[in-house]
Specification:
10 strands; Lysozyme-like; about 300 residues; Muramoyl-pentapeptide Carboxypeptidase, domain 1; six-stranded mixed beta sheet; alpha/beta; two-stranded antiparallel sheet
């Protein structure tokens, strides 16, 4: 059993496992905490939605429907593998379930499957699963024939491993809704023992992150030509150049750089040319292509 993750730690754990996270507006404060306990948490329950389409499913899981207010899970796993977060805290996803299953998950002592559930929401011996489990709804019709794309199964594996890794749990802390309540049959279309094997293998290795995107190289102002630098020239390019000269410690300005080319610009640029090693007529303060490219003036429209 463990204290639930904060929203920031929740997102960090998923992203560290390489999950493509989409944060639905308002998810960080959206919960049912006023209607029962949230935590200590013991595991993860996987569901199917009996719906099609990502956008409408996310809205349904965020808002709920007549007779069952949202949120209906913590995250919606789309067929493309993206995970849309809709709640942080107690959610209406698990309902009542079997206490023997809860104990088996806490101790992680069962074999291929936890003991068969004999309780459900409203039955006399049921225990509250909404307080104990993270829940993920997976977009699928639940008819046993709607396909489970590899990207979606991979995301189920990753979110399960992420939370197990964050809490120090093993793969037996991940169960299907049908393994919790004898009224449920989800998820249909793949086997939970197989998914637990996938989670177990992932937990045996370091998190396999998606490679970080390389930051785009900044766009630089191309050399405008020597004739550009005349007394009548007024352009934001001159201001951008002056700021770069100041940043390089080559300022002869008494007032900050302005758009109009002037003597302070020429003297400042001469200092830059000297810094680069130019001498004589090559350091007259009039920009040339080599010194300009070395200055790396940001692009200005």
């Amino acid at each position: 059993m463990a204290t639930p993750l904060t929203a920031d730690r929740f997102v960090a754990a998923l992203r560290a496992e390489g999950v493509t996270v989409v944060e639905h507006p308002g998810w960080r404060t959206h919960n049912r905490n006023g209607h029962g306990a949230w935590g200590p948490v013991t595991g993860v329950i996987i569901h199917h939605t009996v719906s099609a389409g990502t956008a409408n499913t996310v809205e349904m899981c965020f808002n709920g429907y007549e007779g069952l207010p949202g949120p209906l899970c913590h995250g919606v796993i789309a067929k493309d593998g993206s995970v849309h977060l809709v709640a942080n805290g107690r959610a209406n996803h698990a309902g009542g379930g079997d206490p023997s299953v809860l104990q088996a998950v806490i101790t992680e002592t069962y074999g291929e499957r936890p003991p068969g559930p004999r309780e459900h929401q409203g039955s006399s011996g049921a225990v509250d699963g909404n307080s104990r489990f993270y829940g993920f709804e997976c977009v699928n019709l639940g008819d046993g024939t709607d396909p489970w794309p590899p990207a979606q199964l991979d995301a189920i594996e990753r979110v399960s491993a992420a939370l197990c890794r964050a809490h120090g749990w093993g793969a037996r802390s991940v169960i299907g809704h049908k393994e919790w309540s004898d009224w449920k049959d989800d998820p249909r279309g793949f086997a939970m023992p197989t998914m637990r094997d996938r989670v177990r293998k992932r937990l045996g290795a370091a998190p396999a992150k998606n490679p970080p995107a390389k930051p785009a190289a900044p766009r630089l102002q191309p050399f405008p030509g020597t004739s550009f630098f005349r007394a009548e020239t007024s352009s934001p390019v001159i201001t951008a150049m002056g700021r770069r000269l100041v940043a390089e410690g080559c300022s002869a300005y008494t007032v900050g750089p302005s758009p109009r080319w002037g003597e302070a610009d020429r003297l400042s640029y001469a200092k830059w040319q000297h810094k680069l090693g130019f001498r004589g007529s090559d350091a007259d303060g009039i920009p040339g292509a080599a010194s300009w490219n070395a200055l790396k003036v940001p692009y200005t429209k």
